[in-house]
Amino acid sequence: MRLTSLSLTNFRNFTRLEIAIPGGNILIAGDNAQGKTSLLEAVYYLATLDSFHAAHDRQLINFLALRQQPVFARIVANFQCADKPHRIEVRITQEANGANGAAQVRKEILLDDLKLKAGEAAGQLKAVLFLPQMMRVIEGSPEERRRYLNLALSQVDSRYPAALAEYTRAVTQRNALLKQIAERQSDPSQLDFWDELTASSGAQLILARIRALHELDRLAARYHRELTQNAEVLRLIYQPAFDPLPQATGQYPLPLGASIDRTHLSLADIRQGFIERLAQLRSEEIQRGVSTTGPHRDELRFLSNGVDLGDYGSRGQARTAMLALKLAEVAWIQERTGHYPILLLDEVLAELDTHRRIDLLKRLADAEQALLTTTDLDLFSPDFVQQATIWRVQGGRILQ
User: Fold this and answer.
1) Is residue 265 within 8 Å of 193, Cβ to Cβ?
2) Each residue's pLDDT tens digit, 111-137
3) Which residues are CB-contacts of 277 (< 8 A; sequence separation ≥ 6)?
4) Adjacency order of strands within the sheet including 102-111
5) Helix, strand or coil, per DSSP, at residue 131
6) Can you tell me the mean pLDDT for 6-14?
7) Is the separation of the CB atoms in 292 and 277 below 8 Å?
8) Which residues, in sequence order, are bridge partners of residue 299?
9) What 3-state class would DSSP assign to 175?
């Protein structure tokens, strides 16, 4: 899979860009705040229909465009997948809405000129993104790790985005009803419908995460051993808020690094267990006015030689683990879909030692297409630079 062209209008630093994109490695060089990362963000947005940077789509619109009418941004890419050409386009429009003129943002997505919902379009273009800010996946809050899982799974499982949207709506409605029942002392059986919906969609998310993390754990451990020259062992530990394998009464809690295999569980098993758990928690959740268990509270931890990297790992250990995870993500997407994703690497060599730089650049030889940003071309070997396409970015313009 590879891009053949990219068009940006009023997206981030770019007021207008039209560029053909060759295969192989592309080095995007330039000073900070010139638009290098915005290029990677645009491609990743087309793959996931979400931004790892922006909290809201309106933040993607170039600030100069906010002074004009209509206020909009547009991202278009042509790409090849299995030797077939495709075109994906996203239009983000900000409109005044209501008497107070509050801004409303509308997103329109077209694949091969057919309108699709975000959940249907996610993963049509496949990409793996590495940003320095992604260290938050290891070092940040559980929400960061759940978001990472959601973005990755949306590219390989066509049912996942719809299940996620349905679960989010169900939990929102259930929380509102929990508060209403507590305030009005109304009938708790009103929760039965929302418990069923929460458990049905939530079970799909839990099963998808169990299988994905089982596969990513295997792949990431292999790459991590190579990156650390067999000095460290990486484990990805999934901690579901509702565990479909509950511990028996009186059993001591398992240590964090204990291996727990949940892959044999069926969707029906998880769903039924989830419904039963919601029934057990009903009185407590009515008092608290919030859903206390489910995928919205799942956790993922990274252990190296048994040490929790989020709490005790060094910056270098965390970065190596994140690099191993991203290499695993590439292999995982290829295994699950049969397509090698586009690699988007932002200043990936800046904090790596010489050994890891050489190792990573060798791995890029397998990529059909990789876009790498840098402020310093000297970080790359002369041979790599000579074989790569060089783009220089300055003030939202690409100089070839």
Assistant:
1) no
2) 999 999 998 999 999 999 998 888 999
3) 242, 293
4) 14-20, 2-11, 71-81, 84-97, 102-111, 114-116
5) coil
6) 95
7) no
8) 239
9) helix
